Amino acid sequence: MNRARVIRPVVDLLRSPKGPRDRQLLYGDGLDITEQSGGWCRVVSDKDGYQGWLRADQLGPDAPATHWIWAPATHAYAQPDIKSPDRVSLSFGSRVVVLSQQDRFVETELGFIPAVHVKPVGTLLNDPVAVAELFLGTPYLWGGNGRWGLDCSGLIQAGLLACGAACPGDSGDQERDLGTALPEGTPAQRGDLLFWKGHVAWVSGDNMLLHANAHHMAVVFEPMDQAIARIEAQGDGPVTAHKRL
User: Fold this and answer.
1) pLDDT one-digit tens code per residue, 20-72
2) Which is nearest to 45 in space by CA: 57, 28, 70, 60?
3) Domains of the chain, CATH where assigned
4) Where in this chain does the record put each NlpC/P60 domain (predicted)?
5) Residues 204/215, Cβ–Cβ less than 8 Å
6) What is the pTM (predicted TM-score) of this model?
7) Residues 6+ apart with CB under 8 A from 160
């Protein structure tokens, strides 16, 4: 078994070589390589144990990150100057190695990133719903896990991992593993999760959900009663669980 990390801004974690995307990994995500074949690597992600296939050229030597990106997205610049060329864009949750700090920038292996956009590894946020709100307007993407596209379970995972809580990658596993199931009729409160078959949403406030969904093709706020009625009417069934973390 070999250690490695992702060296592209975002990569698709595939079910098989050249197969469909199941999830995504972000720059700096650590992983174990369990199999190699024809330029492809079967990997196990550190952050949630998810398994899949990546191209070998998307991976580099393992290097423990020192900082993580906590802004919705950021740029790495050629120089510590906002007018210098931007080299690459990174999503919330990406992990980097900081080499030094120069004025308002940190120097990384990719270039210079605004210091206000990074936090030391181990620094946690405290409100997963507030984290999810950073993704408002992000396009819906099946299996997505970054600022340029994510799905319902990706939105849940982004919030919980940033707050130090373990979280599986898929909504079915999240329904099984997260929180405590509440009796039907229990008033919902901020931070609760509502599950349907194949879908999950944050409760963000009084009668309000925050979720990535294919109806709006984006991360949106939606009135809870409206969402429940719409999802059932479109044939996806009733709420299957109301859970509190």
Assistant:
1) 999 999 999 999 999 999 999 999 999 999 999 999 999 999 999 999 999 99
2) 28
3) 2-61 (2.30.30.40), 67-120 (2.30.30), 128-244 (3.90.1720.10)
4) 122-245
5) no
6) 0.96
7) 128, 166, 167, 178, 245
